Amino acid sequence: MEDRAVERNREKRYVAVDVHFSAEGRLRPLQIIFDEERVYAVDQVRDVCRRAADVGGVGDRYTCVIQGQERYLWFEKGRWFVEAFSE
C-alpha cells in the first residue's frame, strides 16, 4: 500500500484583530480573535509587505510571531484574514 500525504485545501478565513494605530498611521496587530475560545497574542511583527495571497486577493501581509511560530496575517480592503485549512 502506497503512503500518500493527504492534500488539504486552504481558504481565506476572516478574523477579528485588535490593532494599535501609531501616530504615523502604522497598524500593529496585537491579537487575533477567531472566537471566544481562540484568541492569540501577536508577540512580534517581523515584516509588512504588499503581496498576493495563495488563497486569492492582494493585501498587506504581516509576518507575525505567535506562540513562537511565524504566521502570516493579511489586511485587505479593511478586513483581516488568515490562510486556514478548510474544515
Outline the fold blueprint.
Blueprint: E1 10-21, E2 27-33, E3 39-41, E4 44-52, E5 58-66, E6 69-76, E7 79-85
Outline of this structure?
With 87 residues, the chain is mostly beta strands. 0% of the residues lie in helices and 63% in strands.
- Are there runs of 5+ residues with pLDDT below 50, and where? none
Q: How do the strands of the widest beta sheet line up side by side?
A: 3-2-1-7-6-5-4
Outline, from the CA principal axes?
globular
Beta strands, count: 7
Query: What composes the largest sheet?
Result: 7 strands, antiparallel
- Helicity, in percent? under 10%
Q: What is the assembly state of the chains in this entry?
A: single chain
Q: Structural class, judged by helices and strands? A: mainly beta
Helices and strands, in N-to-C order? EEEEEEE
Describe this structure in words.
The chain is mainly beta. The protein has one domain (10-82). The chain has strands spanning 10-21, 27-33, 39-41, 44-52, 58-66, 69-76, 79-85. Strands 3-2-1-7-6-5-4 form a seven-stranded antiparallel β-sheet, with no helix packed on it. The radius of gyration is 15 Å and the shape is globular.
